[in-house]
Amino acid sequence: MAVHSYGLLVTILAVCQQCSSWMTQYDQHFTITCPAGKTFKSIESIQDNYYEDRVWNFNCDVPPNGVNFTSCTWSGYRNEFDKPLDFQCGNDGIITGVESVNDNYYEDRKWSFQCCTATGYVVHACEDTSFVNAYDQPLNYRVPDGKVLRGVHSVHDNYYDDRIYKFNICKLDPVDQTVHVVIG
């Protein structure tokens, strides 16, 4: 009996530890921002068919060149429930925060993004990833070294009540301040 109880306790602790390892909760509003001077480096998510929602982890790190952001603004919600999301930070901005609200009628989320810029730096050489997850499947994406996250594209499917995601990633480098003089 004691061995069975111990095994049950270990199982419960393992499940509870797994549940608490996510930064967000199912069906709940959340806002996640990176600490000052950092940007998203990896994004993880799993979907649960009972809740028809995802829980999320966002990990932050110092961006390439260790820039200091001088200005940050929030986009406001950029999609409607059950509609595509297509967002990119403008003005050489990169994503450093997310806010999301869930609606159980639509079984979907709206998304808002914090975009930050750094004086003297330019976002360039941007590219879109392919979709990084399938419906009802885990999402595990790491921004490649030397790149930053500038945008998110997502499509909702009512059959799965889930979204697939792809990301727009770019290089972030100092603006070339070299002045070329032509004498003639």
From TrEMBL:
Coiled coil ranges: none
Signal peptide location: 1-21
Protein location: Secreted
GO CC field: extracellular matrix; extracellular space
A Pfam family of this chain: DERM
Keywords, in A-Z order: Disulfide bond, Secreted, Signal
Main location group: secreted
GO biological process, alphabetically ordered: collagen fibril organization
Family: Belongs to the dermatopontin family.
UniProt cross-references to PANTHER family, sorted A to Z: DERMATOPONTIN-LIKE ISOFORM X1, DERMATOPONTIN-RELATED
Record's protein name: Dermatopontin
Naturally occurring in which organism (per UniProt): Lymnaea stagnalis
Taxon lineage: Eukaryota, Metazoa, Spiralia, Lophotrochozoa, Mollusca
